[in-house]
Structure formats: structure tokens, C-alpha cells
Write a structure and sequence with these properties.
In chain A, 73% of the residues lie in helices and 1% in strands. Chain A is built from 13 helices and two strands, in the order ααααβαβαααααααα. Classes of the chains: A mainly alpha, B mainly alpha.
Chain lengths: 336, 442
Amino acid sequence: MEIINAFALIINYIIIPGLTYGCQLALGALGVTIIYTVLRFSNFAHGELMSLGAMTSILITWIISYFGISIFPLPTVILALPISILVTISYCLLIDKYCFQYHREKNSKNVISLIVSIGVMFFTSGLIRVLIGPNDRTINDGERFIISAREFKEITGLTEGISLKLSQSITIIVSIISVALLFWFLNKTKTGKSMRAYSDNKDLALLSGIKTENVIFYTWLITGTLACIAGTLYGLDKSYKPFTYLQLVLPIFAAAIVGGIGNPVGAIIGGFVISFSELLITFSYNKFLSYLIPINFLPESSLQLLSTDYKIAISFIILVLVLILKPTGIYKGKLL
Amino acid sequence: MKTDLISEKKYINVYLVCAFLFLLVGLFQSWNVAFSILNLCLISAIMSIGINIQWGNSGIVNFGVMGFAAIGGLCGVLISMPPTLEVWKDGTAVILIILFSFLISGILVKKFLKKFIYNKYLKILLSITFIIFSLYLIKSIFIPSINFIENTNSAKTGYIGGLNLPIIFSWPIAGLFCGVIAFLIGKIALGLRSDYLAIATLGISEIIIYIIKNEEWLARGVKNVNGLPRPVPYEIDLQKNEFIQTLSNTLNLSVIELSSLIVKGLYSILFILVLLIIFFLLQKAIKSPWGRMMRAVRDNEISAEAMGINVKKRHLQVFIIGSAIIGISGAMLTTLDGQFTPSSYQPLRYTFLIWIMVIIGGSGNNHGAIIGAFAIWFFWIQAEPIGIFLIELITIFLSDQNEMKLYLLNHAAYMRLLLMGLVLILALRFFPKGIIEEEKRL
């Protein structure tokens, strides 16, 4: 019983939140990685693209709920998601046409594209704040819990409860679906293969008749979709605050780089590495150990490697460490 | 020489435009606003010179402006505030001794690893064990003294305090300190390629901010340090001065306004002095063979290396110089504010805005960096009125009570972000060389 309690504690405080946050990071990192492999620049605006997607979802949700449509117990945002994905994709295509295309055709250094993406970041964050304001907004209007800690305790009779929020399970399910679709697209379809060929060797791909515009169109299509889904899921799970998405950019980059930038599998693994190490390093193991070893042997301190204040800083520390020790990340190579 | 003269004249025109803009603000808004904009413009100009020497002259992408500015600010606190004597014996001294011994033992361990351990992975493993072990030790030894410091009079001090020196000393010391930190960062990070270096420095600067925010014993963290001493007289003292009172009568200004004008003016004079010193030193450096070498490294690293230039060493050198300059400006900023607020350090305001200044002004030219800083900071402050004007223009056919219009007007403050992004994108597209382009040298 004691061991089961210890596991319940770990599942409740580490595995479920880690999986959720990891999924959100992985979706974001996939977007960054795909832009990096195909267009060869680090897109600092990705966080704001996610924010834009989440904002559009909220605006459309308001319209939908105005007409009284709801799919309770599921949150209404799910209905809004397809439309907001379309909006985000169109925004991505617009910024590509007016900001990035020129520098791509001029063969500017990739640092210039990076700085352009910072301009896009400023512009988008300004646009978002003008349209919806900087305030905190809750998206979740559905059922809160699938199973709450109290119910779990009553059912199983354990002292430790496991709670599973609806938003968390939605996050995990939607992420799995979109990642599966993405991999199917990249590996099985002709367009996906041409994208991989383009990222592998641009000149060779052009010679074999692959059209640049098509590849770039699909790149932004995928990026916009992923950004919108990731942003909306993040907003659904926590709450929508425009400035948090700016802080999300670095953890996303950390995830992409830890996994090996340019590698989709790496991006997903990287997302989970970041999210779990954030939780594992700041978790206080005192209670966990109290179930496993006799109370007398238990040390008095909280058995925490770093205090929870440093939670977000951990992703930066991992990022810097990986960049210095092994810049290629877990999976080497730039192949898409 | 001839081209030099012509270009210098061109710069004078641009500076005159800047002066004219300040005159407009002074006449139409108020002289107080004009001087506060000018002071921040000067500080931003020093920051953007720091970035310009790194990016414009040597091609290093440093996104860690925020971190260095914060370290500079921290120096301002640690130099100028009175020391908290109650905690000296059981708190500060203990921490200093422990930090020092860890530094020594860290160096020793590194030497040991370098000499005796050849396996790369074993080395990494051992250093990670050392770090975790020392973290544990630090926690167990530090926590009592940290708690002691933080709990002693926590409403007023609750930190180790400073050295009680005039705050103006903190400017060069911040430069030195930031140089040392930049040396450490550059040693480990400068081997990275441009994009990676950008992300790494951004990450490091975030870590620095996190440490300053959360280690309350150092500078009170998010509780802020207020009331830093000033290098210039206080307004209240000026108001009592008879000469000022007679002056205010003759100028037909209220004493309060005049005194705050004088204070701001004194700050401006100090800042202009610092700016001029840094500017002339750097101009000399850029025109010397050293500057030519840096540009050779920027334009083609491989051929520069083939010519026998130690590229890594040059990069490190310029990274240290630029970061030290940013540190100086960070200390100046806290001096101007009179307080140190770690939570105000945001990458958007410090890192990216400074970068926009350099890009708009014209990278590779220090005149450009100054002009860019002036233009962008001016625009950043004045973007709200411009935004309101734009919204009025767009919604001119709507009535004044229209909800849409009111909503947009309420959010006009955020137009500055939008306009700033637009300016950056347009500038990179249409004037990639900036307002003042790099001097062509033969």
C-alpha cells in the first residue's frame, strides 16, 4: 500500500503535469524545428504565433457561445480550433510574403531573418494586445476534472489522490493525433517527401523539379497549424495571458535544441526532457520517500535540488548546457 | 580624408534633427519630459554602442543585453548602499568565505580534471557530480546564514547591503564586473554559431535575472532596493537655495519645476560625458589596425584565420568590451532611477529594443548606434500619441461614443509594440544599412 501511495504521488505531481507540459512544448518545438530545417532561421516569433492562435480561438469561442452552441462537458474551444487554425495559417502566409520572402530571395544571412522574426514578434504581440488586451482570460468552459483527487481517494482508499483535468487529457490526445498526422504527412505523402528533400539539399531538390513555393507554403501551413494547436492547448490548460507566450519561446527553443534542432522526433523527446527535468529537479522528495523508508531515517530537509522559484530557469540552464556540451542535441543531423 | 569630412558633415545634420525633435517636445509637451527622454536616450545610446561594437564591427550576436544591464544595476546597489552591519559577522562574511572557497576549489577541480582525466564523458560526469555535490553543500551551509540575512529587519534591509561608496564609482566597477562575467560567458559560449549564440546568450541573461530575482540576500530580489544615493543634489535642497529661487523668478518658472529640470540636466551632462569618453575611445579603436582586424574577422572568418588572426581570442576580446559598456550603462540606469527593480528587466525592453536601435541606426557605425538609440527611444515614448492619432484617423467615420473606437483607444499603449515591429521589418527591407550606413574605408 505504501508503495502504491508513493507511485500515486509521483503520477499526480510529476507524470501527469509533465506529460501535459511536455506535449505543449513538443508541439511548439516541432514548429520551430520545421521552420529551421526548411527556411534555415530560428523563428523567435513562434511564441507569438502560438499566442495569436490562442487569441483567435478565444475570439471565435466568444462568437460561438454568443449563438448558444456548446458541447459541454467538452470546452467550446474545440469547436473553434479548426477556424482559428485557418486564421493562424493565413497570418503565417502573410508574414512570410511580406517579411521573410524578400530576405529568402536575396539570400540574406540567416541572422537577418532571425532579426526579422523579432520584428514579427514585436508586431504580433502588439497586435494581440491591441485586439484582446493584456489581461488574463480563462478559456476552459467545460468540465474541470475527469477525476478529482478526492474522488480518487474515495474510490481507491489511498491517502494520495490522483487528479486528472479534462484539459490535460485533451492536450495529450490532441497532441498525439496531430503528431501522428504530421509524421504521416512527412513520411508518406509526396509533398512531405519533397519537403524533406528540400531541407536536405535545396539545390538538388530544385533540380529534380520540386517547387520552392509549394514547399514553403506547406511549411507555413504545418507551422501555423502546430502553433495554433499548441497555443490553444496551453491557454486551455493554464489560462490565456499574452505575456506568458513570450516566456515560452526559450523553453521551446530549449526543447528543439536538446532534441537536436531539425529533427521532429528530437523535438518531441526534447519537449519531454525539458518538462520532466523541470518537475524532477524542483520536486520535493520528502513525502515520496516517507512512504518508502522508515520515518526515522528520513532527513529533515525538503530534499529538493533547486527551489521551485527556479522552475522556468531550469529549461534555460539545460539549454545553455546542451548548447555548450553537445550543440547537436540528442538526435544529430538536420534531416527533417 | 576627404570622404571622412563629407560624412562627418552628414552626421551633423542628423544630430541637428534629433536636437530639433527635443526642442519640439520641450516646447509643446514640457521640458521635463524632454529631459527625461534625453537621459534615457543617452543610456540607450551607450547600450547600443556596446551592441554595435559586437555586432556591427565583429559580427557577434549578443542577445544578453538584459543580463549585463541587470548586473550593472546590481553593481550600483552593491557599491552605493550602506552595508547592513548587523548581518556582517554571521551572514555576509560567511557567504563571502564560502563563495571564495568554492571558487578556489572549482578552479582546483577543473585543473585536476584537465590534468588527470582524459575520457571526455568521465570528465563531464565528474564535473556534474561536483556541481550537484557543491549545490548540496551550498544549500546546507548557506541556508542558515541566508535565512539570517533575509530575516534581519526584512522590511527595510534584509540583504547584505553595499560598500557605501559614491554611486558614480559603480559605473566603472560595473564595467569591470561585467567584463569578468562576459569573459566567463564568452569562454564557454563563443564557439557557437550565430543563431545558437543568440539563443545561448538570451538563455544566460534569463538565468542571471532569475538569480537576481530569487536570491533575496543579494539585493532584496523582487522586493526592490529603493533610495539609492545620487551623484547630483536632491530637488528639495535645490529649492531651498536662494540663487535657484531668484533664478526661478527671473525665468518665470515654478521653483519645483526648475529644480527637477536642473537635476535632470545634471544627469544629462554626466551621461553625455560618459557617452563621449566611450565614443571617442571606440572611434580610436575602430580606426586603428585593431579595428581593421576586427572587420576582417567579421567579413570572412576563414580568411582572417588564414592571415594568422586568432579569431577566438578577438571574439572574446570584443565580447568583453561590448558587455562591459552595457554594464556601465546598466549601472547608469539604476543611478538615474534611484532604485533597483529586478522584475523590470524584460527581454523585450532591454535586449530586443536595443537591437532594433542598432539595426535602425546602422550597424557598424557608432554614430549610427547613437542616432538609432535616440530615434527609437524617442519613438518608443512617443508611439502612444502617434498610435492614438492613427486610431483616430482610421476610425474617423465612427462616432466618438462608438465602442470599437473607445476599445481601440484604451489599448493604444500597445501600439508601440506593433509600430516598433513594423519599423524593424520595414527598415530591414528598405534601408538594411540603417539611417547612417557604415563608413566606406579604403
